[in-house]
Design a protein that fits this description.
Length: 306
């Protein structure tokens, strides 16, 4: 009990990037601009989908849910990271660390499930167009999105409970810019068998199953597209799923490069910059991809401006 109380009262020290102060100032300005652009871009997507009748379809409803996640994730990470860049290090309490990890894990898990649902939506739209409106009803879309949120927050809660049961050693220094799973587990003095088993199971649930469903869905989509006789119809069908394919590729490539690829030969700073890709840059890129490659969103934006 005394060890548990000491853990709850512990402060963690986040080392950040450990670069020169001039580069830290440059990175501070860059990340601040990216964060502001991310919030503005995703809020714009949410506003357009909510107000434009042309965008009241399942695909854009799921895009708006993705934008909510893309606001939640950097808001959880970036403000504290900016403080670390200014001071070249930062401290965070155990409770704040668990809170940060909880929302980080929840948004990541939610996005894995949502991208899978979005691939199924594109599969139904292209492979079963006559049944699309009867399958992807408004109520069903809301239920699917709610299930993604519930599963994401439930998985994150399970991880936080397991981590909170660990006993952490001193020095309590995390060589990262936020409270991630691997740096926290490396500080543990107690056995980590339970959380390693959970990590293996969650990799299967969050990575293997979603990626398999996405590959199967888009394999059927591509087969259907190539069977279309008209070049115009084929191009239109491909354009509706190309943006989602780009987002899926960026998200899973960066995620797999951080958590599953061998760490041999990778420096700590390289791992941190890879983590920046899916915590800061990907949430900014998503609205750009969907807005620049989507005629409906550009049309709705012009109508709103005019």
């Amino acid at each position: 009990m005394q060890e548990k109380n000491m853990t709850l009262d512990m402060d963690f020290f986040l080392l950040g990037f450990q670069l020169s102060q001039k580069f830290n100032y440059f990175l501070f300005c860059l990340l601040l601009m990216i964060y502001c652009g991310t919030i503005y871009g995703n809020l714009l997507i949410i506003t357009l989908v909510s107000t434009s009748k042309n965008l009241h379809t399942p695909m854009y409803f799921f895009i708006s849910q993705l934008s909510i996640s893309d606001i939640l994730l950097p808001t959880d990470i970036v403000p504290n990271m900016l403080n670390i860049l200014l001071n070249n290090e930062g401290h965070i309490t155990f409770i704040s660390c668990m809170t940060q990890f909880y929302f980080f894990a929840a948004s990541e898990a939610f996005e894995c499930f949502l991208l899978t649902v979005m691939s199924y939506d594109r599969y139904v739209a292209i492979c079963n167009p006559l049944r699309y409106t009867s399958i992807m009803t408004s109520d069903r879309c809301v239920i699917l999105a709610a299930m993604c949120w519930v599963l994401g927050f439930s998985i994150a809660f399970m991880y936080c409970v397991t981590i909170s049961m660990l006993t952490f050693c001193r020095p309590n220094i995390i060589d990262h810019f936020f409270c991630d799973l691997v740096p926290l587990v490396e500080l543990a003095c107690s056995t980590t068998y339970t959380i390693e088993l959970e990590l293996f199971i969650m990799c299967f649930i969050l990575l293997f199953i979603p990626i398999s469903i996405i590959i199967i869905s888009y394999n059927n989509v591509m087969v259907t597209i190539f069977r279309i006789q008209s070049n115009v119809s084929r191009q239109k069908a491909f354009s509706t799923c190309s943006s989602h394919l780009i987002v899926v590729s960026i998200y899973y490539i960066t995620l797999l490069s951080v958590y599953l690829l061998p760490k041999g030969g990778q420096t700590l700073n390289l791992n941190k910059f890879l983590a920046l890709l899916y915590t800061v840059f990907t949430p900014m890129v998503n609205p750009i991809i969907y807005s620049l490659r989507n005629k409906d969103i550009k049309k709705s934006l012009k109508e709103m401006i005019s």
